[in-house]
Design a protein that fits this description.
Number of helices: 11
Strand content: under 5%
Helix content: over 70%
Structural class: mainly alpha
Strand order of the largest sheet: 1-2
Number of strands: 2
Length: about 290
């Protein structure tokens, strides 16, 4: 029973990291209409940046804040100087972000090396916690709480604020939003920065959970795509639910069915697509 509960906590923690990653991906695609295949690379490079800032300052949370800020700034630069020149050219955007993923991955190898790096959880979350007489590592609970808080904040902003209403309007109908006087380009740029910032935050916060390697980005981008497909494009609630499902399936599959761990995740995606092509909480488009 302790093994099951231990794996459940780790799976939920991984699911929350997937939510932070996939929520940013879904936000960018929904508003800016960019399939950012460098999303996982921003996670990884931000994790390394957070590690360097932590080593220089001796403060883990300062590393998280710094890495998130740098990641969001990189998102602004990417959108301003590269993607804005390819507006409406989906194939070129995909190729650009795919090439950028390779550039970022090689940059990580050049700066930090290609070895595996591990990050220790910050005090006082670097030790075990006792719950009902059972001992668990405490940091996964921090990740779970942070993920839930980010989900609550995002849902409040998107559903209850004027900024959220503008984002939803641009997502639903950019042309009509422009006609009504909304700055579609500005909203898309800010949303892109926020999406990259979420990936950067996930990378910095998740570094004590996942060992850092330069080639981690491809698997994380794949996980983000799977979560978005399962949850439904443009649905933050769907991304949250799908992230938890994928985290649990991946966590328990890796322990009890290690040879089929990857297959179970794709099987879950195929099952959802077969039953609900628009995803768990996505909306049907077109005349269907």
């Amino acid at each position: 029973m302790q093994l099951v509960l231990f794996q459940l906590v780790n799976s939920l923690s991984f699911g929350m990291l997937l939510f932070l990653l996939s929520a940013g991906f879904s936000l960018i695609f929904g508003v800016a209409k960019v399939a950012n295949l460098a999303h996982g690379a921003f996670y990884v490079i931000s994790a390394y940046l957070g590690l360097s800032i932590t080593q220089l300052s001796g403060n883990f949370w300062l590393g998280v804040i710094g890495a998130t800020a740098v990641g969001a700034a990189l998102g602004v630069l990417l959108d301003r100087f590269l993607l804005s020149r390819l507006h409406g050219q989906e194939l070129r955007q995909v190729l650009l972000t795919l090439g950028l993923a390779f550039v970022l991955s090689d940059s990580i190898r050049f700066i930090w090396g290609s070895g595996v790096r591990s990050v220790s959880p910050p005090a006082p979350f670097d030790g075990p916690v006792s719950i009902g007489g059972l001992f668990f590592p405490s940091y996964p609970f921090v990740v779970i709480v942070l993920g839930a808080l980010v989900f609550g904040v995002m849902r409040f902003v998107l559903r209850r604020t004027l900024a959220g209403a503008r984002i939803r309007a641009v997502t639903a109908d950019p042309q009509m939003s422009s006609t009504l006087g909304l700055s579609v380009r500005g909203i898309s740029a800010l949303t892109f920065a926020a999406g990259i910032g979420l990936a950067a935050f996930a990378g910095a916060v998740g570094s004590p959970q996942l060992a850092l390697t330069p080639n981690l980005d491809s698997s994380l981008t794949l996980f983000a795509l799977i979560v978005v497909v399962i949850g439904g494009l443009g649905s933050i609630e769907g991304a949250f639910l799908a992230s938890l499902l994928v985290g649990i399936v991946n966590g328990f599959g890796a322990v009890y069915f290690p040879a089929l761990a990857q297959i179970t995740i794709f099987a879950l995606m195929i099952l959802v697509i077969a039953v609900r092509p628009q995803g768990l909480l996505g909306r049907r488009t077109g005349n269907a």
